[in-house]
Amino acid sequence: MNAPAYNFAYLDEQTKRMIRRAILKAIAIPGYQVPFASREMPMPYGWGTGGVQVTAAILGPQDVLKVIDQGSDDTTNAISIRKFFAKTAGVATTTSTDEATVIQTRHRIPETSLHENQVLVYQVPIPEPLRFLEPRETETRRMHALAEYGLMHVKLYEDIARFGHIATAYAYPVKVNARYVMDPSPTPKFDNPKMDNCPALQLFGAGREKRIYAIPPYTQVVSLDFEDHPFEPYRFNAPCALCAAENSYLDEIVTDDKGSRMFVCSDTDYCEGRQAAGHHGALSAAPYKDKAPETSNG
Amino acid sequence: MYVAVKGGERAIENAHRLLANARRGDQSVAEVSLDQISEQLGLAVDRVMSEGSLYDRELAALAIKQARGDLIEAIFLVRAFRATLPRFGASEPVDTGAMRVKRRVSSTFKDIPGGQILGPTFDYTHRLLDPSLSQGFVPEAPAVAAASTAPTPRVTDILGRDGLIETSPQAEDGASVGDLTREPLNFPADRYLRLQNLARGDEGFLLAMGYSTQRGYGRNHPFAGEIRFGEVEVEFATEDVGFAVPLGSIELTECQMVNQFKGSATEAPCFTRGYGLAFGQSERKTMSMALVDRALRARELGEEVGAPAQDEEFVLSHSDNVQATGFVEHLKLPHYVDFQSELGLLRKLRKEFAEASAESNTPDTMKEAAE
Amino acid sequence: MADQDLLETDQPLLVAESLSKSYGRIAACREVSFSLYPGEVLAIVGESGSGKSTLLQLLSGQLAASGGQVAYRMRDGVTRDLAALGEAERRLLFRTDWGFVHQDPAQGLRMAVSAGANVGERLMAVGWNHYGRIRETASDWLTRVEIDVARIDDAPRTYSGGMRQRLQIARNLVTGPRLVFMDEPTGGLDVSVQARLLDLLRNLVAELQLAVVIVTHDLAVARLLSHRVMVMKGGRVIETGLTDQVLDDPREPYTQLLVSSILPP
Predict the structure, then answer these.
(1) Judging by DSSP bridges, how do beta strands A34-35 and A64-69 pair with one another?
(2) What is the ipTM of this complex?
(3) Nearest-neighbour CA in chain C from B143: distance (Å)
(4) What is the C-alpha to C-alpha distance for residues B39 and B23, in angstroms, rounded to an integer?
(5) E strands of C141-233, at which residues?
(6) What is the pTM of this model?
(7) What is the domain partition of chain B in residue ranges?
(8) pLDDT surpasses 50 at A46
(9) pLDDT by residue (tens digit) across B329-364?
C-alpha cells in the first residue's frame, strides 16, 4: 500500500495547469462556461469541489485565504475548506475581507467592496442558467453559441404574468459583457449589483458539472429584466439587529419557540467590523468586546 | 441578547472523533482485519474496485473498513485517492479470449468449445438462511481436476467467424486512449467513453436501466452470448524495453450480449453487441452494463431513440454514484441565504395576494359608494 | 417601389430541385422539383407512407436530403441554398420568416407555459424587451385566432384541441413570416372544429399573403385552402396542377381513385 504524499494545495501541478488553462479561457470569454476535467476531490461533489479546484489552481504560498459559506466564516463547510487549504498548502487564512487575496465563497458576495488584488472564487452547483428550462446539454450549448436567450425571457415573462413581478430571489440570471447569459451561482439577487464592474477577478467553479467560468475585473454584468419591469434588488425592512447596517443582507434568526425572530447580517466579518467600529443595533450584546480581526498562519 | 453561533471548528473535530468510535463499535468485539474483508467480503471489494476504478484489493478493503461498510462512501475514498495518482501510460488491451476462466456460461449454445463452467456462483443455490455459517463453518473441500489446456474462445468470436455478429471495433495501433477521468465528457460521447462511464457507473442504477430495456423501454432482444470470469494478464509496453512487459494478472468479469440484428441496403443483417466489463466477479454489473451499452447505441444503429436507457445525456449524466450522492447530500449544507430570499419573496407574494383579495372582496355597494 | 414589389411576387420564394431522400434501400422521396411563389398555397396530398411528410421535413431543412437541393429567397432578396446556411441563420429563419404548424399542437407549443408566453417567445427571441408591448401583441394575436384574451395566462394544457391548434398558429404568425409549413393541421380534430379552423386559416392566409406548404391526406382541406396540388405516391410526385383542375379532372388513375374514394361527389 502506498502512503499518499500530496502536492502543495493538494492537486498535482499537471492538473493545476489544466485548470489554469480553463480559467484563462474563461477570462478571455467572460460568462462562457469552459468544460474542464474536474478531478475527484476528497470532499463530496456538491460541497464545493469546483471552487476548491479553482482555489487550489490559483493559490500561491504568499496568498491569504478567506472562506465563507452563507456569508459566514464560521459555518461548518467554510471551516472544513479553510482547514483543507491550511493543511495542504500551509497558506495564511483570515476572516477579514480586506486582508484576503483569495476569497472562496458559497452563496454570498462579501458586503465590503472588493479591490483589484483580490480573486473571488464561487462554488457553483449548477452552472447552466438554462438548465431548468432545457435539460439537454447539447441544446443549451447551442443556445449559448447562437445567443438564443428567448427562453430565459419566457421564464421572466411567466413570473410577471403570474405574480406581477419577477419572482426569482436567488441565482438570478445575468448577462455578462453583453454576450453570455450566466448563472451567478445561488447568491441572493441582493448581491447581483456587486458583480457589475467589480475591481476583483471573479471565478466560478462547478466540480460535478465540470465547468469553469469567469467575470474579468471591471466587466459589465447586467441582471436580466424587462424595460417596464426593471431588476430590483431585494430590500430588508429593518437594519441589522447587531450592527444597525441598513444595506447589508440579513439572516433571519428564530430566537424562541414563540415565533420571535431577529434579523442580522449574514456577512459576519462585516457585522463584527461595524460593531467594533462602534455601530450598535437594537439587540447587540453590550458592551461589545473589541477584538482584532482574526488572522492565523497555517 | 444574541451572539452569533461560533465553535463550528470544535464541533467538526468532536463529530469526527465520535465517528471513529462508532466505526470501531463495541471494543470488546474483535476488530475486523483488511484480510478478512478482502477474503470474506470479496464481492464488496470487487464492487469498490470496479466503481472506484482502481484495482487494489487491499486499498478497497481499507476503504470499506473506513466507510463502515458503506460501499458508495468506500468507492468515493478510492476515487479521491486515485485522482492524485500520476499516470505513466495505458496498458496494452487485455485479451479476455485468453482469460484463465473460473466461470463461463453461455445462454446461446448448449455446448461451446472449452465447455460451460459453472464456477463459484449463487445461481441454483436456494436462498435459505444458513445458520451453520454463523460461526466456525469449515466448507467441504472443493472438487478439483487438472486444468484443461483446451482453448476457450469467446462465443461472440465463434459467431463472428461466420459474420453473424458485427465485428468488434478494433483500436488502431498506437492510438491514444481517452480517459474520462482526465478529460471532461462532452455530448454526443463516443462509445469508448460511454463504456468508461458505465464501468464506473452505479451498479443499482445500471441494473434499473438495463431492467427497463427488458420491460419494453427500448427493447433490443438480448441473449447472454457469454459471461466469463477469470484472470487475465496485464501488459505494459514501454519504449525503453521495446516490448510489452507483463505487470501481473487481474480478475475480470466480461459479458457479451448478443442483440437483435441490423442490416441495410449495403450491409447484410447481423447480430449486434452490448458489452460489459468489470473488475473481479461482478456479473450483475456487467450484464446490466451490456444491456445499457446496447441501448445507448440506438443512435449509431439508426434506431428510434425514445426510452430513458437510450438517452445518452440522461444515462451518462446520472450514472455516477459519487457525483449523485454528493449532490443529493449537499442539501444538508446550510442554505440560509437562499432560503431567506425565498422566504422574503413568499412573504411579499402572500401580502400582495391578501391585498388583492381584500380589494376584490369589497362589497359592490361600498365600491359604488366609493366611486 | 414598384420594381421591388414586382420582384417580390415575380420571383419564386422557395425552389426545390430533384429533392430525394432514402433510408437504406427504401426511397422515401424521389426527385421532387417545384417552385413556390409568394402568397401561394401548395397542398401535398397522398396516403400515409407516400413520402409527403418526409418531403415537408426536407423542405423545411429539418432533414438532410440524400440528393437535390432547396433554395429560399431570404428577406434581403438573396436566394440561398438551405443546406449551405449556417445553423444560426437556419434557426433565425425558423423563428422569424418561417412557421411550422405541427399536427400535434403539443409538439409546437410549450404546454406548461402560458398562452401569452407561447406567443411572446418568438418576439423575445428577436430582442423584444418590453413586457407590456409583448403582452399587448400576444393579446392581439389571441383575438385574431379567436381565443378569449381572458385565457392569456392559462397554459395550453388547459385548452381544447381546437384552441391549442389556433394558439400554435398565433405563435407561428406573430413575427410575420412569409412562409408557413403545415403538417396535417386539422388532423386530430373533430369535424365541426376542423371547419372552423379551416375557415380561420383561409382568412389569415389571404389577409397576410402567406405562402404555405400544407401536407394533408384530406382532399377537402386541399380544396378549401390551396391554389395548387401535388399528388404523391411511393415517394414520387405523380400529378401536379391547379387545385380545382386536379381534383375535378384528375389525369392519373391513382388520383382518380383518391378523389372518388375520399371526396363526396
Answers:
(1) unpaired
(2) 0.86
(3) 55
(4) 20
(5) 179-183, 211-216, 228-233
(6) 0.83
(7) 10-82, 96-118+150-168+180-326
(8) yes
(9) 999 988 888 898 888 889 988 998 899 888 877 655
